[in-house]
Amino acid sequence: MDFFTASDPFIRFASWVAAGAAALSAALIVQIVLLRELRRPGDRRHQRFLQRWRPLVYQAMNGEPVQWPALRRREAEAFLWFWNQLHETVRGEAKLALCTAAAELGLGRFALERLASRRVSRRLLAIATLGNLRDPEHWWTLTRLTDDPHPPVSLAAAQALIRIDGRRAVTQLMPLFARRADWPVTRALWLLEQVEADVVTKAIARTMPRTDQAAALRLTEFVTAADAVALQAVMAQRLHHSHDPELWASVLRHLNQPEQLGLVRRCCDHAVWFVRVQAANALGRIGGPEDVDRLIALLTDPEWWVRYRAAGALLKLPFLPREELGPRAARAGAAAKAMLDAVAAKEAV
After folding, report:
1. Prediction pTM value
2. Which of 41, 67, 68, 80 is the most exposed place for a label (fewest CB within 10 A)?
3. CB-based burial label for 310 (10 Å; 0-12, 13-18, 19+)
4. CATH superfamily name and code, 255-349
């Protein structure tokens, strides 16, 4: 009996918890039912919208003449979403037909009205529409938006400009690509890859000498969208005005021409370890017989990553026989030989 008396508070607490959970579950069920009921009128309106406009748009995409009804203002936003979604999924003549339909319906006007909205989603919809319309008339409107403090808005404007005229946009916007650290590198790189590599190369070459350290470092991230060989001299020249080890390391990652060997060799003695790492990697790509001793010396570097990359670089040199490399590394010390053997064994797996 004492046991049950002592347990009464716990039983009551468990009962309260169970009752609260049941009430919460009931409230959630009611909320779900209400949300479904509230969505039904909107779903019905959307279905009516599609029944009215989808056949006409598909008819236009098939090259057939269309008698367009007036696009009512209350339907404009739904039509903009519908039109942009189609624009992203079709190619060739169908895209041109969509642009023709948009011009006939005056979509540009509806898009411009939404640029002043406080809702970012509406502004993004408007920007995407102006870009997909590919009308140069909207060039300076979009250009002003590339300075917008909200990264999604400014980056969307840059994308729209590239869609209108990629060559002109990259030439004009490369300083922004370099300066706007709030534009994700992967996204910016994807945009630059939509344009011919020679255009990106010229824009980077023109921008890099005039930028600060951070912007120059960011520009090196975009070299993969350009002609890396053509930019080697520009990047190497930029290092003459920089003491930033991150910039030095980033440039070294891209150097693969013998003309830059002098710079690479000097970096083998750089005070910052990750610059020496990239110097070792570069020697593995472009080093000559006279660089073997440099790399063997790096096998005794205080930093493990430098020793590891130096060993990998030595093993990549096509002119250096393996049977000769082992004894030369051993003369540098047991630790140097052990690192070389470890990397060789890993590569053999």
Report:
1. 0.80
2. 67
3. buried
4. Leucine-rich Repeat Variant (1.25.10.10)
